[in-house]
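Practice problem: predict the structure.
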Amino acid sequence: MNNRTASAPANHGAFQRRWFLVLACIALAYAFLAGLRTLDDYDTGWQLATGRWVVQHHQVPSVDVLSYTVQGQPWIYPVAAGVIFYLAFLAGGYALLSWIGAAACVGTVALLLRRGNPVSACLAILAVPLIASRTPPRADAFSVVFFAAFLSLLWENYQTGRARLWLLPLLMLVWVNVHFGFVAGLALMLAYAGVELSETVLGEARRRAAMQRLSRASGWLLCTAVVTLLNPWGWRIYRALLLQERASGSQEVSIAEWTKLPLNWVAFSQALPLQDIRGALYLLLAIAVAAAVLGLFRAQLGAAILLFAAVYPPVRHIRMGAVFSCVLVIVGGPILWDAGLRLSAHIRPSRIRSVAAVGAVLLFAGFAFARSFDLVTNRHYFGGDTDSATFGAGLSWWFPQRAVEFIQTERLPGEVFNAYNAGGYVAWALGPQRRDYIDGRDTLFGMQRIERQHQLLASSPDSSVWRQEAKQYHINTILLSIARYDGLASVELKKFCDSRDWQLVYLDEVSAVFVRHGPEVEDLILHSKQDCATVRLPAGAPSQNSAQAFNQWANVAGILFVLERDYEALAATDKALAIFSASASVHLIRAQIFYALGRFAEAEHEHLQAVSLHPDDFTWAALADFYRKRDRDADAIVALKQAAQLSARPGALWVQLGYYSLHLGQPKEALVAFDKAVKGAAPELTNASGRGSFSYNVATGRARAYEILGDVPQAIAYQEEAIRLAPDASQPWLNLSQLYHLDGRSADEERAKARAAMLAENERR
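Answer:
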């Protein structure tokens, strides 16, 4: 009897170690494959350029040294990551940088599993997509790794009181010099202290043990906090950190990773296949809540509070999913493992427990294998249509590498204009001899500069805004990133091709170069002039690599469509789909081509195909736009509702839905849509003014809805709000005059008409 009792813990320990090792190996292998991807991030370039500047000048800059638009402006950002990346590039090029990204992903998972159990390993497998999304070679990859290390040490100390806390100051010394994310380490230390203090209400024995652990740790925690001052700027780094935090609101409007996680059944159900990070995030959030509830029942108050607190950041900003998953694996894993052991103790016979364990291992192994297969074959990158990387090492396909080489070879005069997405690469590839117009340093350039480059890309290069900008900054060359996704969609390429002031001199599948007419470039124009109507695409021979060839033809199709070369574009989509048929973006291009050719049934089929392949806000909104153009407003409303519920930034979609409802004569439904638009919009969006702004469109729509409902005073109130937002536009004054007429206010009507007429005359000038 005693022998059997003694053998049970030993058998249990062997069982745990065996299955943990199997699952941990699976998690690490999956993490390696997920982390090994081509470099595609906007920020890596300017961080490389900063590292190069530091190495070459032997000093750390406190002002901008990379751009010509804000050169010399105060700029504080940890530079050690850039130096590391630059030295790695010198040693092994872009390929080594990709391997660093893979190492960061694997290292993070390894730290999470340092003291793990089989459930922790299962959670780590589910968390790999979230971790991989934050560990490409850019500065904040270090924050994910260090966050996992800090949490692992602090939680070990909470559980055992014997963690090597002397490592914390050493880790912080590096962390504070590589990324602003070091503040998460300070937050973790505060959370640790809070968890220990929560133990003081759970009995005398637990209170005494907690205070002993906290007393032992306090010196190292204080030392770690002081170490944050060991950086080139001392305490001023906290002022820079505050500026960075204030920029997060504007980043939520313009950068996808800063957006909120949609919390509704439509978004959740579409993510159930776990094909992207949202699906993994929804599942892990549900598991975290369950683990927190179990923690409360098991009197693990500190762990439960920590898990509940960890749920909020990824809901507020999707990019926080990686650090949230670290908390779940380290803190939630043991709770769920303990609950599983207690449940299994009630299962008889033991063979059923063994079968269940083997089945669980096979399930997670199969999941990891399926996702790894998608990664290695690029199905993940091509099928999701949200990722511009591919599996393997090196530079991603979308960077304007050949255009930069053309600019360097031809020694084009003047400054080079570039868009936001390519700015980091321009600073790196054209520097240090040339500087960029804008890059991903949002706190430096600000929303005004970001909006300015959007305005320029949407305008004709012959317009006054372009002439003013070119004169102010001596811009003689325009480098356009026109790859699909962010590039081609953000620029009016046809307007640039039709320009009188600027001439196309280079075009390939991802970029275009224009030069301003002038005596210094006339020889270049003579031998390099290109005609958008006839230029050959792809510019070079089609690649023999299937992944590169797919991206090549998919990009060519989009560019040819924009250039109104529809049949050539259609042929390019055929070649892209012959390589990978499940690309939603290529099917959307085909839908646009068929619509332009008047083949509406085929266009609708392609739209529906795109929705079925990748049902996100973009594909549903494109389908809604198709239905609206075909005067199928009821169908458009259904599609747009789907898009709004799936979108992380639904405000503009709800506004659009409100106008669709007005068109159908449904003012009550329109008002509901406008209310949802305001509720789901970021403050930076609602605070913007001017004609065409979010708040202006909402106010104008509400005014029209109340007019239809016969509530003229309310309609007037909202129309007056629209005028306050756009006082120099003629149309809102004209609308107000009509409402005054309905309300019998003839004197006000005449004044509004006169104001509208004066503003209309100014607009014609």
